[in-house]
Amino acid sequence: MTGTEHIARAAELLSRQWTTRVISEIDHNGPLPRRMAARTFTDLPRTGIHYALPTLRHRGLLTVAEHDGRTCYLLTEAGEGLGDLYEALARWSRTHHHPGTATDFVTRVEAGLELLKDRRVLTALTADQPAAPPDTAGTEPDTLTQANLAEPTGERTWRLTQAGQDLRGPYAELAAWTAAHAHLIDAVPPRRSALGTRLPQPPRTTTAFARTTTRRTT
């Protein structure tokens, strides 16, 4: 697997259902007592909680250990390493209003990961000059132009916009995390979308990270 393929695979894995929500909660507020999980993730269905927590343990992002006399979910070293990536993605998304102006931390992070799953975007970020997007008439819009990451400078020449150039920062964070934790990425089978096992998404609320009033401002 090439470096770009590995990075795209990491972005796909990290953008899977509820990963950002759970990791961010514990990163923001510290160890999560097992008995408080349902009360903490009130925006997730109970089936989602029972799915997400053991799944993230299996993927090597969470662990269970005693903390202050209680059995808690804690971030592993790999989970803690996502903090800088999340901050970089959220900052980029907020600065460049992607996917919009009225979004929360989790939405901004997930929107950035969606871009970094796109191999064409990754190729553009690592090239001196991105190749011209293909003719998209009658097809899905090209991510580079849809997200305002690249713009034409001539008939067949393109360049990264400021948003595209700035996305290289989160890309570098993702690349560094991927290199450090490639074994975790390789251990998780690729998603098989045809199985149709994806659980329903919870509604977005403004009560995320409610265990404490101390929150990040990103």
From TrEMBL:
Region entry Disordered, spans: 193-218
Protein name: Transcriptional regulator
Classification lineage: Bacteria, Bacillati, Actinomycetota, Actinomycetes, Kitasatosporales
Coiled coil: none
Domain of life per record: Bacteria
InterPro entries: WH-like_DNA-bd_sf, WH_DNA-bd_sf
